[in-house]
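Here is the promised in-class demo. Please do not try to memorize the tokens; focus on the logic of going from shape to residues.
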């Protein structure tokens, strides 16, 4: 990545008041219009129905150590300062204050398995939309925004910066990215993120999580950062129609196999395996205090995002 800003960002900075839609072209214009509409919808809900429950959409990670105080009943045991407690004068917990600047990192799966779904509304399309809406929301809150796109290699990495131009750069990168690889490796993506992201941040990881042996990486990331998992699904992966023997292509390996979709046992096995994966990820997230939501491509994702923000705000008010 060069140090010089992309042309479209230089133009945004140069022509104050000039809409970035004009600069980006029709594809970006249509997407930005859609994302802004959803972002405004979120803002209106926050300031009206749920005003008392929200202080910040991403409230949670921007915390730095402040002091210690005696332990009180109900305090989170994770905040116990064991070094101070070991001195023998009682049990003490760490207190934190909110940092002036919060960093939000988006870790986005752009592998071929994300391309399952209807044209224009597959899992990858939804992933890009959700990330775009959250990027716009984060920019409005003056947060620093960063991005990591991955397959089984690092596809794109943008260091965090503040401002709406940074949100536009993230959206532009997502729209125009052409992955080098079709495959997925969540463990490698998580290992890269642990090395790349230096300061404690809100990490929003968006993927279908179709992979194996990545829970250790998630656990390590959750220990160091405030982790949010957004799982993207499509019903085509579980609700196969009864159409007899059909060719099915593996998006990542590009291999085609023939399956009998009229055979009930096959459909049930696929559905059971997918459901089991989701339950395992949801249970793991609860155990390790990771915020988790699952969104299907045919769902309105705005209510789910609002619910996620509400849960996060209540959690950190109580902490």
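The designed amino acids, position by position:
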């Amino acid at each position: 990545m060069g140090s010089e800003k992309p042309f479209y960002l230089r133009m945004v900075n140069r022509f104050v008041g000039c809409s970035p839609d004009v600069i980006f072209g029709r594809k970006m214009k249509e997407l930005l219009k859609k994302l802004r509409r959803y972002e405004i919808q979120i803002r209106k809900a926050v300031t009206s129905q749920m005003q008392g429950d929200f202080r910040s959409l991403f409230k949670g990670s921007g915390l730095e150590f402040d002091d210690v105080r005696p332990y009180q009943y109900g305090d989170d045991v994770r905040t116990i300062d064991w070094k101070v407690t070991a001195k023998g004068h009682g049990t003490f917990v760490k207190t934190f204050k909110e940092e002036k600047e919060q960093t939000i990192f988006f870790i986005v799966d752009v592998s071929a398995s994300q391309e399952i779904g209807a044209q224009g509304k597959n899992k990858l399309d939804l992933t890009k939309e959700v990330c775009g809406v959250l990027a716009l929301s984060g920019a409005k809150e003056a947060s620093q925004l960063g991005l990591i796109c991955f397959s089984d290699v690092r596809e794109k990495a943008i260091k965090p910066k503040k401002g709406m131009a940074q949100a536009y750069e993230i959206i532009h990168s997502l729209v125009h990215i052409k992955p080098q690889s079709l495959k997925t490796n969540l463990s490698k993506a998580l290992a890269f993120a642990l090395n790349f992201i230096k300061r404690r941040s809100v990490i929003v990881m968006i993927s279908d999580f179709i992979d194996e042996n990545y829970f250790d990486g998630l656990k390590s990331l959750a220990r160091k950062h405030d982790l949010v998992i957004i799982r993207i699904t499509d019903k085509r992966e579980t609700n196969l129609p009864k159409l007899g023997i059909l060719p099915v292509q593996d998006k990542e390996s590009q291999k085609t196999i023939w399956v009998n979709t009229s055979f009930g046992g096959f459909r049930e096995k696929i559905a059971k395996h997918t459901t089991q994966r989701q339950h395992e990820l949801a249970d793991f997230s609860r155990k390790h205090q990771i915020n988790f939501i699952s969104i299907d491509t045919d769902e309105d994702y705005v209510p789910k995002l609002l619910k996620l923000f509400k849960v996060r705000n209540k959690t950190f008010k109580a902490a």
